[in-house]
Amino acid sequence: MISEEGHGEDKRRKEKEEEEEFEAMRRRLVNNLGTYLLLDEKVREAMLRVPRHKFVPEYEKKAAYIDRPLDIGHGQTISAPHMVAIMCELLELSEGHKVLEIGAGSGYNAAVMGELVGKKGHVYTVERIEALANFARDNLRKTEYKNVTVLLEDGSMGYSYFAPYDRITVTCAAPYIPEPLLEQLKRGGIMVIPIGSDCYSQELYKIKKDSKGNIHKKRKGGVSFVPLIGKHGFRKSLEC
Ligand code: SAM
């Protein structure tokens, strides 16, 4: 007969084995990304540290280290790892940066950015769907990201209370660059945002605000994001 203590040990051993498997899958995924993206070393290390399987619902856990978006409920997705890597690289994140993210979703991208800005930096991530804001908060608490704060608001308005931001990233597609986001970006700051009204394809932009406050935009290729819904976004979900 196996004692209760024996059962407990068995469970811990299985959990440890499962965690090791996830870690090996994560290493393979990130190494693979490095074969077709010019993966910055700091972004690479950050992605190696964040356990993506702890930011997806139980039914998607096994797919957590496949390079594709996954369902997180409420018609929303966690972005594909290559997209997280590309956006983090474009943002040129450094230790100490104050970052605003629009579209917390699962909290995964915020955690990767939390790794990149370190303890002296902070990531504010805004979500409009309450259940997802709670999901992200829960995931970030369990994985112990203390430098990330989830806010339940319409992110198309930005979040003026903590402005200005060194970096702003929008992980949903906007019809145009929301004016409040431009205002809340620091001089010398960078914003990355997908723009477009098509359901399946938009254009990723890297926006720089120079020391005089002038705005410079560069196209960075085609992407596919769920819509930004709000005062400075779409009025409702796009009909695809
Ligand atoms: N960054 C997320 C992650 O790491 O899981 C993925 C974001 S998902 C592709 C886009 C998110 O943007 C959805 O959770 C959606 O609810 C949110 N969203 C859409 N419009 C928004 C708005 N006005 N304010 C805040 N969040 C918004």
In short:
By secondary structure, the chain is α/β, with parallel strands linked by helices.
Name the descriptors.
single chain; 240 residues; alpha/beta; 7-stranded mixed beta sheet; two-stranded antiparallel sheet
Describe it for me?
The chain has 240 residues and is an alpha/beta fold. The chain has one domain: 3-Layer(aba) Sandwich (Rossmann fold), CATH 3.40.50.150. Helices cover 34% and strands 24% of the residues. The protein contains six helices and nine strands; from the N terminus they run H-H-E-E-H-E-H-E-H-E-E-H-E-E-E. The chain has a seven-stranded mixed beta sheet. Strand 3, helix 4 and strand 4 form a beta-alpha-beta unit. Helix 2 packs across helix 4. The longest helix has 33 residues. The mean pLDDT is 94. The structure holds S-adenosylmethionine. The site of S-adenosylmethionine has 26 residues, from strand 2, helix 4 and strand 4.
SSE ordering:
HHEEHEHEHEEHEEE
Which ions, cofactors or small ligands are bound in this entry? Answer: S-adenosylmethionine
How many structural domains in the coordinates? 1
Strand % is 15-25%
Count of β-strands: 9
Strand arrangement, major sheet:
5-4-3-6-7-8-9
Terminus-to-terminus distance: 58 Å
Assign an overall shape: globular
Question: Low-confidence runs (pLDDT<50, min 5 residues)?
Answer: none
What is the fold-level CATH name, i.e. the topology?
Rossmann fold
Residue-averaged pLDDT, rounded? 94
Number of helices: 6
Overall CATH class: Alpha Beta
Specify the CATH architecture.
3-Layer(aba) Sandwich
Helix/strand-derived class? alpha/beta
Radius of gyration: 18 Å
Spell out the CATH superfamily: Vaccinia Virus protein VP39
